[in-house]
Amino acid sequence: MKTPYKTIYNILKLNRFIVLAVIVFAFLCSTISVWMAFSTHRNALNSAFAINTDGSIIPLKLVTQKENFKVEALAHLELFHNYFYNIDASNYERNLKKALWLGNSSVDNLYRQKKADGVYNRLLQYSLVQKVIRIDSRIIENEGSYSFSTTTVFEINRGTIIDTYELVSTGNLIMVDRNFPNNPHGLLITDYFENTLKKLSEDL
Asked: If you placed Cys at 76, which of 69, 101, 110, 185 could pair as Cys (CB 3.0 to 4.6 Å)?
């Protein structure tokens, strides 16, 4: 006995089912492929590779920029305040030139104001030695922008007299291209301002 042919409707239903199944399978494959590509790209951004001496590849996990920022910022501020305030008659020009690389026009304006007030002339005239003793900085983050407050303790040696001062300065930090050795941390001080300067007791 011959097997009866399936009706045209059953054949169309089967074809439709096969087409839908292929479409769903293709959609799932595309979704998985996109997810895998995104995941691979994200992992690549957070990883670096080094070549070992035997030719093998060593994955190196990079710390995110935000985690590194505070360390870079504190080092940048310490470098700047050392250059700007740790000066004497023999090194002030060299140190101030280096300090100006670390800040914008607000630092340059302060330098020009001090120069106009005769600060550096007195340094030369009386052979003063201004030595930084301590630098304490605090970084404040606010919606992606960064500001700081730094307390710098320094002493001025006038030969027979040594006076100690505490300076509190503030400003903002922005990221720029690194420029070694002029700006190794890739940061720039903006809106720099000397808030308070007071003389400390001699028994500090």
From this structure: 185
- Weakly modelled stretches of the chain, pLDDT under 70: 1-6, 41-67, 201-204
CA–centroid distance for 40 within its chain? 26
pLDDT score recorded for residue 46: 56
Cis peptide before 4 (omega within 30 of 0): no
CA–CA separation, 110 vs 133, rounded Å?
Answer: 21
Instruction: Give the E-state strand segments of the chain in sequence order.
Output: 47-51, 57-61, 87-88, 129-142, 145-157, 162-175, 187-199
Q: What is the pTM of this model?
A: 0.68
187: its two tokens: 């940061």
Closest C-alpha to 135, from 76, 68, 54? 76
